[in-house]
Amino acid sequence: MESMHGGMMFRPGRPIRISPPPDVLPACRLHIRCPTRPEVVSGQKVEAGQALATPTDEFPFTRISPVTGTIVAVEADHSDSIGDDDTIFTAPPDSFRISIQPTGDSMTTSIAVAPPSLNGLQCWLTELSRRGAWTDSDPATQLPCHGLINQLMQVQKQRPDALLGNGLDAYPSVADHTSLLMSFSRAAVQGLAILAEIAQVSQPKLIVPAGSPAVRRLRAAAKGTSVRIVPVQPRYPASSTTMLAYMHAGKRVPSHVNPMDHRLLIAQPWTLIRIGRWVHEGKLDVARPLIAAEPDTEQPLEVHWAIPGMPLSHASESLGKRMRSNDHVVLAGHPLTGRELNWPIADDIGPLIGERGLTLTVLRNLGMPKPEACISTGWCVDVCPTELQPYLLMQKVVHHPRRRLLAELQWCIECGLCSHACPSAVDLAGTLREAKWRYLRQPAPDSETT
Amino acid sequence: MTGETPGVTQTADIPPPPAAHSHFGTWLHVVTSRVRLDARWLTVVATMTIAAWVFFGWRALLSVILTTVGATVMFLIIARIVRLIRRRYQPDPLLHVVTVAMLTGLCLPVFVDQLIPFLAGMSVGALSHVFGRSHRVRLHVVALVVLAVWFIPAMVRGNGPSEATRTHFHWYTNVLNPSHVMTGDLAADHPPVSRQLWWEQITPSTGEAAIRMADVDALILRERSRMIEHEWVMVNMLSSGELPRLEDLLLGAVPGPVGATSRALMLLLMLYLIYRRLSRWSVPVYAFVSAAMTLMLMVALFADHDMLVITRLVQIRPAVAVTYVTYMLLGTPLLLIFGILAPMTMPITRWGRAVYGIMLGTFAMAFMWVTGVPAAAYFALVIVSLLSRPLDRLIFGRFAK
Question: Which of A61, A208, A364, B254 could form a Cys-Cys staple with A167, CB 3.0–4.6 A?
Fold first, then answer.
């Protein structure tokens, strides 16, 4: 196992027991975003699990209606910029928005559909694609290419060398992944074993934080299976794809690429649990957990069950209130990399629950220091897990914007530690991140100058 | 996947990053603020100032204060002038300049004429606008000013470094009175020797509260070859009290830079800086190891032949050899330079710091050995501080190779 350079230890959070999702949730209007023109029209009745739009190359899964109800609106969605995205975590640009009014006063949180048989990758891939998104992906980057379907499509071309279950919390002070694993340990292990069977990996590993109460439960659940529980020190950002791949498979995988390009399959806890529960209970969860935390306080985690497309304020009234208050900031994600959720963004609906991302962070009493000049403490270099020199890299980005710096920038995993460590409060993480994505979106020149 | 670099996706249709950052890189407060970091440095120099006051009396304290005042006045005047031309000019914080100025005062001996530390301070104040820690060119201001204080008189006279060697040894002949070690003061009851330039005047040797004691580092470097040529030389120097005992070196009853009189305090402060991550262990460790190795490779000039130091050390008694090496490392200003001064301009990368430490140790020992002047070690610091940023640019991490 490779060692991790830099990183930072944070006070570990306490995992909590999460009850299984309720059978029904109170009904509310759902707003589903589709990457392509929908196959349904306004006024049409839809069943739970019915296709709303067909897959595309970029989003290789069917958009389904999570509930039975009536389509009340289908309209083009122009909120395509990064910051104005009103869906928690992501939605494709140039998409459509479908509003569905559920039938009755409640919505079922699962759809009754039998899981595929255990043998056959193609069979699973087809069935997974038909059942909506499996994009509970890398907690650090939340990129679509890390989704289960995207990875399994690559498995068709080449077998993975390793399969890793990412049981490390994205931000150690918020025990989101460990809470899920502790509460659904059997389902998680079962899900990983199923994936290993599909991808023909002999010994899948479930990476969990050492010392967590989840370890004992997972070990008990993994007895007699091929799954290996690997406890590791929960040093931030050990849970990012790049660090997982490097430390547990010895592979160098940039955070923005599909891990299967490097023959590595990585699955997140809710994906594993969902597969495990699907096989075990015969019905597929459409509701997903949403974990809210106040990392600076001793407040326990708040867990809500929500259906994608649901307004956040409906999933949690208290979160909606805090989002609108001036004393609080609600972030999608954790405090090192999260994005502020604004209210209201569009049509007074507010932020919607998407498919990606488990955690919401509530922060208060923010008073950020003003950035000053770098004083060369070198702390940004010390904490950088991929051994970049964030300040020097930022200087290159700022002073030589025409240079292609992807060979270095691709290794920025956007963990935010450089900004957190910088005593001059220089916005290193934000600048590098912006530059990285600007370069990635640019057409490649004939030869890259670094 | 195209292109030569594995993993670089070079297509134009990559979706935008979904979890966009806000106005700021992170929502967590920074680990340590810059003010707190400056305050920690100030704690270090304040402790050294107290030690200087305890061991050298009010004159040492006054010297440090004057250096600080000189630096502050000059710094503020220049800042005001520059702001008239460039309105958005942001100089280093005053707290940092004060720290650097105090450190400069602590690297100087006690002078009779307090104008010298004041002028040194003014130089620091002016240079801080050119070689501040936020500037592109990193240069150790303290080392540069200390060098200037030592070498300008020799250069003015036109006698070159050999004059500095002679005067360096001569100047320090008296600093402390053993009976006043803890509360002592220096009495300047004799006028300075007329042949000295005005900035060379220091406390004369016949002062009531002064001890006739040679400056340890100058003495060690003057006798560097003789001490191993004949084993009895060092034994005699120790028994006669000419060379202070090791415990005196550690405690602080020896002349030299007023802030570095106590080696034990230097070690403690060095550890504090490492603990607070203002320094890194690699710099002093690599510097001391390379200084010791360089020492071994130096050529000792004996009366009738020359010999490598290591060859001679193998021949003499181990106790004498170990004592010699210890004095060469602890008796000279290396601890002050490696432990306290060097971190101010060290590179930001791990390997850069290692190379920096190795170069610093090698150059400092080589320069001191060749010239016989303790201040030559500061010259090594000036050189390697200039190489600090280029070193960082040469080094890449495991991923971005």
Answer: A208
CA–CA separation, A306 and A26 (whole Å): 10
Share of chain A above pLDDT 90, in %: 43
> Does the pLDDT of residue A73 top 50, yes or no?
yes
Name the H helices within A88-159: 121-130, 148-157
- Give the Cα separation of B77 and B128 in Å (integer): 12
Within 8 A by CB and 6+ apart from A186, the residues are A221, A276, A280
Instruction: Please answer yes or no on whether B134 and A373 come within 8 Å at the CB atom.
Output: yes
CB contact under 8 A, B26 and A335: yes
**Among A441, A121, A436, which Cα is nearest to A265's?**
A121
- Whether A255 shows a pLDDT value over 90: the answer reads no
pLDDT > 70? residue B174? no
Lowest mean per-residue pLDDT among A75-84, A325-334, B101-110, B266-275: A75-84
Q: Supply the pLDDT for residue B179.
A: 29
Place of tokens 């104040």: B125
Task: Output the CA torsion sign for A148, A153, A156, A162.
Answer: negative
Residues of chain B contacting residue A339, judged by C-beta atoms under 8 Å apart:
19-22
The tokens 């830099």 sit on which residue?
Answer: A6
Helix, strand, coil percent content, chain B, rounded in steps of 5:
60, 0, 35
Percent of chain A residues topping a pLDDT of 70:
90
pLDDT at A342: 67
- Across chain B, how many H-helices and E-strands are there? 18, 2
* Other Cβ atoms closer than 10 A to B89: 13
The whole-angstrom separation of Cα B156 and Cα A45 is 98
Amino acid letter, B291: A
Instruction: Give which of A141, A396, A409, A440 to mutate to test B binding, by max B Cβ within 10 Å.
Output: A440
Q: A395 near B387, Cβ under 8 Å?
A: no
Written as six digits, the tokens of B370 are 């060749």
- pLDDT tens digits, residue range A3-16? 888 899 998 888 99
Which residue from A143, A339, A424 is facing B22, i.e. has the nearest CB? A339
Q: Could you tell me the pLDDT band of residue A87, with boundaries at 50, 70 and 90? A: low
pLDDT, residue B109, reads 80
Which residues of chain B neighbour A414 with C-beta distances below 8 Å? Answer: 17
In this predicted structure, the answer to whether residue A81 has a pLDDT above a threshold of 90 is no
Interface test with B, best of A59, A356, A377, A399 (most B CBs within 10 A): A377
Total residue length of chain A: 450
User: Is residue B199 a contact partner of residue B116, using CB atoms and an 8 Å limit?
Assistant: yes
Q: Which residue has the higher pLDDT, B159 or A238?
A: A238
Distance of alpha carbon A338 from alpha carbon A139, whole angstroms: 10
Bridge partner residues of A266 (DSSP): A164
Collapsing DSSP to helix, strand or coil, A99 comes out as strand
Residue pLDDT, tens place only, A403-439: 778 888 889 998 999 999 999 988 899 889 888 888 8
Please state, as a whole number, how many other Cβ atoms lie within 10 Å of the Cβ of residue A279.
Answer: 18
Q: Which residues pair with A98 in a beta bridge?
A: A32, A74
- Asked if B65 contacts B102 with a C-beta cutoff of 8 angstroms, the reply is no
First to last CA, chain A: 30
Cβ contact B349–A384 (<8 Å): no
Dump the DSSP string for A141-175. Answer: T--GGGSHHHHHHHHHHS--SEEEEE-S-SSTTS-
Q: Amino acid identity, residue B153?
A: P
- Please tell me the distance in Å from B355's CA to the nearest CA on chain A: 15
How much is the pLDDT for A352? Answer: 81
Most confident of A111-125, A208-222, A313-327: A208-222
Does residue A280 surpass a pLDDT of 70? yes
